[in-house]
Amino acid sequence: MTTVFTIEPISAFSDNYIWLLHNGTDAVVVDPGDAGPVLAALSERKLALKGILITHHHFDHVGGLEALTAATQCEVWGPENPKIIPVTHRVSEGDTLHILGQAFQVMEVPGHTLDHIAYQGEGILFCGDTLFAGGCGRVFEGTHPMMRNSLAKIRRLDPQTKIYCAHEYTLANLQFAVAADPKNTVLEERVTHCESLREQNIPTVPSILADEIATNPFLRWDAPSVMATLVAESKLIGSNSDDVFAGLRQWKDMF
Ligand SMILES: [Zn+2]
Questions:
Q1: Residues labelled as active-site residues
Q2: pTM of the model as a whole
């Protein structure tokens, strides 16, 4: 059974997106870092909060959890990290959950944090701070090979998958992407398109996985053009895919 639902961004802090899924009556939110804007959006739309999905333990993704569960007694799905409370369903790789009549599968995608998971179903991916439009999350708790492996898992999904990440970092990410892959004409077009969206205050998220594969350097560790730039910029620390990825990520950290 497939229930049609709408997905809307709720803006929080300076550049977070809390994703709101609803069918006109019931709602689910992803990574509510702040309860205030979620409660306002629910009341404006006259929605009942039924569930919360959490991708990882960072405060800007879980900060609203206690207030929202206290106000609504909704269910919460989250990673196997006891620090995240309250969670009613701890989930891990391969688990299936049903929200608003739709099945989602859990993918473990460690790297940004060790507990990071993503939710994938019906051509949609909620990936928190793992893959961003035009970039990827910083590697805080994991290793570069771990992060590349997580991104490789995402890269194998259906290319038409819509990528719902948790931040509007796209223009800054694309600036780095152009430095890393300067001759990529598809990337050039994407920059123009995203600049025009931001000028009109329209989110650049979700993006389509196929566009990320064509333009996001952090999904292009095996693209000869990206490797050539790393060589030219003396950022290449070795020749295998993990080295290319690590060279790119460390360059971006300083960019
Ligand atoms: Zn994070």
A1: 56, 58, 60-61, 112, 129, 167
A2: 0.96
